[in-house]
Amino acid sequence: MRLMITGAAGLLGSELVRLADHDVVPTYHSAPVDGGVRLDVRGRAEVDAVIQRVRPDAIIHTAFKQSDWVTTADGPANLAIAARDTRFVFVSTDALFDGGPTPYDEDAPPSPITPYGAAKAAAETAVRAFHPNAVIARTSLIVGSAGISESEQLTHDLAGGAPGALFTENIRCPVDVTDLALALLELTTSDHRGVAHVGGPEAVSRLELGQLIAIRDGLDPESLPSSPGPVSHIRLDSTRTQLMLKTRLRPVREFLRPPRS
Fold first, then answer.
1. Residue 58: which of 91, 24, 27, 28 has the closest Cα?
2. How far from each other are the two terminal CA atoms of the chain, in whole angstroms?
3. In whole angstroms, what is the distance from residue 174 CA to residue 126 CA?
4. Which is it for strands 87-93 and 58-61: parallel, antiparallel or unpaired?
5. Do strands 23-28 and 37-38 pair parallel, antiparallel, or not at all (unpaired)?
6. Integer Cα distance of 76 and 90 in angstroms
7. CB 187 within 8 A of CB 196
8. Does residue 91 contact residue 60 with C-beta atoms inside 8 Å?
9. What residues pair up with 170 in beta bridges, in sequence order?
C-alpha cells in the first residue's frame, strides 16, 4: 500500500513514518523530511496536483496549525475532495468539545469554545460531506516516547524556572505517540468509517501530567508552578474504538512510568 502521511515533520507524523510497514510518502510544509514531498494543504490546486502525482492508496492527515483557520479547517476539506477514491484518515482533536461533566464518546456532537476547536469541528463537517467513508480520529494530548511533545517541553521549561503554570482544572486524556500511531495505522487498513476516539483511558489534569513527566525525566515535580486555570474537563471516551483495535492505548501513568534502573 502506498501511504501518504501529511505533517511528517511533526511528532505524530514522524512516528507514523517510522512505524508504517508500507510504501510511505511523507509530506511537509516548511521543514523538509527525507524523501518527502512539499505540500501546502491550503491550496486546492496544489493538493490535487500532489495527489495526482503521488497516487496514494491511503492518506493519514496529521498536519494542522492551531492559529491558522485555513490550514486547520480548509486543508482537510481540500484533501477529502481530492482523495474521494482514496482511504482517508483525518486526525482530529478533543479540543472541539466544551469540557462538560461527563465523558465524550464517538456519538457526542462537537461543542467548540475556542477558534482551534471550531476549526477542527468545521473540518470534520467538511470531511463527512466530501468523503463519507473517511475515518475521523479524535485524540487528546500527545506525549512523545522518543521526542519532546509540547507538554514535555512545557514541563521542562517550568521546572527550569520559566514563567507560567500548569492548570489543575484542565482535564484531558493523554495518549502515547507510539500507541496513537499504531492505532491510526490499524484504522487505515480497517473497514471502519466515521468517528473513532483514540485518546488514553486515564484522565489527568495538566498539573498531574506535568508531574508524571517530571518524575520520569528526573525533575522535581514539586517545583512545577500550578494554578486552577479555566475549568475544562474534557474526558475522551475511547472504549468503543479500543474494542476494535489490537493496539492497546495505555493509561498515562503506565506509559510515563520511570524506567527501572
1. 24
2. 41
3. 26
4. parallel
5. parallel
6. 7
7. yes
8. yes
9. 232
| AA identity, residue 180 | L
Quick one: cell of 184?
491510526
Using a 10 angstrom Cβ sphere, with 0-12 exposed, 13-18 middle and 19 or more buried, the burial of residue 8 is: buried
- Of 28, 104, 116, 255, the catalytic one is 116
Q: What is the pLDDT along the chain (261 residues), one digit of tens a residue?
A: 999 999 999 999 999 999 999 999 999 999 899 999 999 999 999 999 999 999 999 999 999 998 999 999 999 999 999 999 999 999 999 999 999 899 999 999 999 999 999 999 999 999 999 999 999 999 999 998 656 899 999 999 999 999 999 999 999 999 999 999 999 999 999 999 999 999 999 999 999 999 999 999 999 999 999 999 999 999 999 999 999 999 999 999 999 998 876
In 3D space, the residue among 92, 131, 97, 96 whose CA is nearest the CA of residue 117 turns out to be 96
Residues in the chain: 261
Using CA atoms, how far apart are residues 121 and 50, in angstroms rounded to an integer?
A: 25
CB 120 within 8 A of CB 138: no
All three cell numbers of 158:
517550568
Catalytic (active site) residue 116 = yes
Report the C-alpha gap between 214 and 156 in whole angstroms.
Answer: 7
